[in-house]
User: What shape does this take?
Amino acid sequence: MRTHVVTSDTSIPMKPIKILTSNTVILPSTDIDTDQIIPARFLTTTTREGLGKHLFSEWRYLKDGSDNPDFALNAPAAKGSEILVAGNNFGCGSSREHAPWALLDFGIKAVISTEIADIFRSNSLKNGLLPIVVGPSVHDWLLDNPGASISIDVETSKITLPNNEQCTYPIDSFARHCLLEGIDQLGFLQNHITDIEKFEEKRSWKP
Assistant: This one.
């Protein structure tokens, strides 16, 4: 019996990320957890569309629903920023894909910190959000220079600061490939359907 391979286009729609250049927006707080990124009451949807308006909801809005003028993402200078620089241990807490979904829907494409929680990092890479861990000196410089224009090269795993100083960041080869191609794990498999079908036809054992 031949194994059926799903070929419908059900992978997450993503755009390739090769070089990302943007001003930064700063959230220096440490231990920002997933419930602060997207509160649990907004987890009823199974799609990312519209989640951006709920990103950091408890911090972005006042009790009357109006924008909190003291919150960094509401500042005029933050408009259009695609790179978030956060304090240490970003994305800790419970696992929820809605956290990277909300960041992406808001317009954030990369998060930089000195430490990013493993599960949040995994969920981010699967959904096209680039989580970057840098050393203390680079992180301190970014925190001290909010709004700085930096460039992130996914292919070379390098960040270029305004003074042309560069630093590298860790990322595994499979995650890099998916980001460069704009595909998720299912999309990667769909790109190899022909090879998979040939293997299914030729193998002598059956599951």
Summary: The first strand starts at residue 19 and ends at 27.
